[in-house]
Amino acid sequence: xxxxxxxxxxxxxxxxxxxxxxxxxxxxxxxxxxxxxxxxxxxxxxxxxxxxxxxxxxxxxxxxxxxxxxxxxxxxxxxxxxxxxxxxxxxxxxxxxxxxxxxxxxxxxxxxxxxxxxxxxxxxxxxxxxxxxxxxxxxxxxxxxxxxxxxxxxxxxxxxxxxxxxxxxxxxxxxxxxxxxxxxxxxxxxxxxxxxxxxxxxxxxxxxxxxxxxxxxxxxxxxxxxxxxxxxxxxxxxxxxxxxxxxxxxxxxxxxxxxxxxxxxxxxxxxxxxxxxxxxxxxxxxxxxxxxxxxxxxxxxxxxxxxxxxxxxxxxxxxxxxxxxxxxxxxxxx
Length: 334
What we know:
- By secondary structure, the protein is of the alpha/beta class.
- 43% of the residues lie in helices and 13% in strands.
- The protein is built from 13 helices and twelve strands.
- It has a six-stranded mixed beta sheet, with helices on both faces. Strands 2-3 form a two-stranded antiparallel sheet. A two-stranded antiparallel ribbon has the order 5-6.
- Helix 1 packs parallel to helix 5 and helix 10 packs across helix 13.
- The chain starts with 17 loop residues before the first strand and ends with a helix.
């Protein structure tokens, strides 16, 4: 699903669950609160939070956040040294430069293998640190053009909700922070845990679409046909070959209109969308640990274990066997 970056590099090296949220003067409280809600609350099944969460401040002492809030946090930038993941929840302004100390701390963390995640204008901090050079990235739709102009070495994805480049993950603003947080949990702990978190947060576990759906869309004079029943039907029949003309007839559209509407609804083509759905299904089956690789390939719609392994290598940079082993070990630790 091209609303997110192609799934890859989602099975991390030895897992460091220490997560540090960055706080700063004029902190974006929505994005910060979303991260706290997603990562800092106790998981019902494990009886403890999924991450060892702490907050590091760019400034010393008490400082202000948006909405009249004053904050005292766990420490300063020294907390970034031991983090497995650093989250930058927004930034006070795309025109406000990050301090030299923050830039240096992020560069050091990146060299040490720490995963760094940004929400909304946090991408501008990563860009200033040079951590986005040669990578794809996104930000809030109203600032992606500025991001592209300021950092020409970055491949800016203007329509993505979030972009996962393995050790660097960026997202759009506002509610896209929820999508990003669930993606990170899905990447670290699997689909079942991410879905459980989504239910607690009363939000869809995986949104279909991209920022283009949310930007000044005029209300159509005639309601467009809803593709949701068709998408549900495709999810329930993963072994059925995709025949575009047949799908268009089922949706009551011409082939050209169907492809355009499908892209508007999902941000990608039917083939790419179905591949992502099949991969998500395969990951869930592997995490359950109950089926053989052959059975997973069949039930997820890949037909053969060879095809399953091919797409895991191409999209997830791992193998089905290693994926299962990694999540089983993660569950034993918890």
